[in-house]
Amino acid sequence: MSKFRIGLIGLGGMAGEHIRWMNAEGCFEVVAVSDVYEEALLRVGEQLGVAPDKRYTDYNLLIEDPAVDAVVSVTPNNVHAAIIHSCLQAGKPFMAEKPFTRVFEEAAPLLEAYERQPVPAMLAFTYRYTPAFRYARELVRDGKIGAVRSFSIQYLQGWGAASNNVPYIWRFNKDVTGTGTLGDLGSHMIDMARFLFGEFEELSAQLHTIIPERIDPASGNMVKIEVDDFASFQARMTGGVMGVFQTTRNAIGSGNQHEVSIYGDSGTLHASTLNPNEVSWIREEAPGQLAKLSVDVPEHCRVTQYANFKALLEGTIPDGIAGFMDGYRNQEILDAIVRASETKTTLRL
Ligand code: SOE
Asked: Does residue 130 have its Cβ closer than 6 Å to ligand 1?
C-alpha cells in the first residue's frame, strides 16, 4: 500500500505525539521536515530517516515540495496563519494545530483564500477523538438523557502553578501566542462545546493572570506576563443550552484534565480524559429512581484523529471531523471571549 507522504512543520514537543499517532495508523510516512532550529532538523530528520535535502528551515519550501502530499503543522501560534495561508496558496491539504491563529484579525484573510481555493483541511482538535467524549456525543444525539439543558466543561493543567517555578517560555509570550491558557486549552473547550452541542450564541467571560511575572532564563530578569493563565466564560448555545467553562494551568495535581458534565431532562453524563474509556451516566429509570452507571465506550466510538485525516485525504469528510471552518469559528469565539472580558459585557455572536 502506498503511504501518504507527509511534510511535518514544527519539531517541538507536540511533533513527537503526531509522529506517534501517524505511526500507529501505518499509512503515513514523514518525507520532509521543517523547523527553524537546525539541531531539531538533524535530530528528527535522523530519527525518521528523512533525506537531508528534505530538511527545510523555510517551511514554504516544504509546502511547495511536490513530494509532499499533505502538511502537518505543529508550530507555535505565531506562524499558524502564515502556514495555513501558504498551504491554501499551494493547494496543499493540511492538518494544523490549534489555536487557528493568534487573533481573529489573522483569520479573516485565510477565509478569503480558502473560499477562493478550498483544500482538504483539518484542525487538530484532538479531544474529538477521546473515546468518552465521542460516546457522550452519541448518547446526547440519541436523546439518552432527554433534552440537554446545561453543561460544564473544564480543562485543568498544573504545570504553570507557582510552586513549579516555570520560567518565561514561548507559551507566556503574547506576541507568539495571542492569548495564554485561553487559546491553548480554552480553544479545546470551545471546540468540545461545538462538537457536542452546536453553536455559541452569546457569552460573557473573565480572563486573569495569576502569576504576573516569570524569570527569563536567558537574562535572569523578571518578565511581565501579558497573557492569561486562568479563563472562565459562560455561554448560551443553540437551543438555549447553557454552558460554563473554566481553564487554568495553575491547578496543582491536574496533569491533563479535560472534562465535561452534561445535564439533560432525564439524566446526566460525565466524561473525562482521566477516564477516557468510560462515561458515567446517571439515568432516571422511573420517576424519582436514579441508576448510577459506568458505561464502557463501544468500539465504534474509538475513532482516531489520523484515521479521520486519512479519510479526508482520500476524499471523504468523516462525521465529527474538525475542518477549516471549525478553526475559523473557534478563533472568532476566542476573540469574543477576550473582548467580553476586557469590556465586561455579554456579547452576542
Ligand atoms: C499544553 O500543555 C498542551 O500541550 C496543549 O498545547 C495541547 O493542545 C493539549 O492537548 C495538551 O496540553
From this structure: no
